[in-house]
């Protein structure tokens, strides 16, 4: 509960920081643990219902909203991030997105771009650096442990290896 409160307060602080300012070089740092939901704040002082909002992760498209519609094919094939947005809040200028159950692979630099008539507005850029900490497991010698591992795609015809400190590990 306390962690959710801190997350909410941080989100509010980021929104207040960006509201009414030039976003040119502003960067918001967000750090969470694996499998947590995280909201990446992006807010502008105008309605966004008839505008274009583009979220990018490390330069690749992950979410595009344009003229009242989410463009489902906008996500780059190499960059799959599970995001949702707040459609009821677009009229008040909120273009924030939520990443559900963030993974370490979701870490990166996210940029929210606000376009009007196919050009990025000078105050239409928000940059967020997201870090998703990996799961750390501590155990005693000779203690059995289950290591969590999940995939969002089929494992048919896939190969994967377990590594510890960069070295291949063999499990019995």
Automatic annotation (TrEMBL):
Gene3D superfamilies tied to this protein: Immunoglobulins (2.60.40.10)
Protein name: Ig-like domain-containing protein
Main location: membrane
Signal peptide annotation: 1-24
The entry's keywords: Cell membrane, Disulfide bond, Glycoprotein, Immunoglobulin domain, Membrane, Receptor, Signal, Transmembrane, Transmembrane helix
Any one Pfam family match given in the protein's UniProt record, by short name: V-set
Compartments, record wording: Cell membrane
Keyword hit for Disulfide bond: yes
Residue ranges occupied by any Ig-like domain in the UniProt entry: 36-112
Record's bilayer topology term: Single-pass type I membrane protein
Organism whose genome encodes this protein: Xenotaenia resolanae
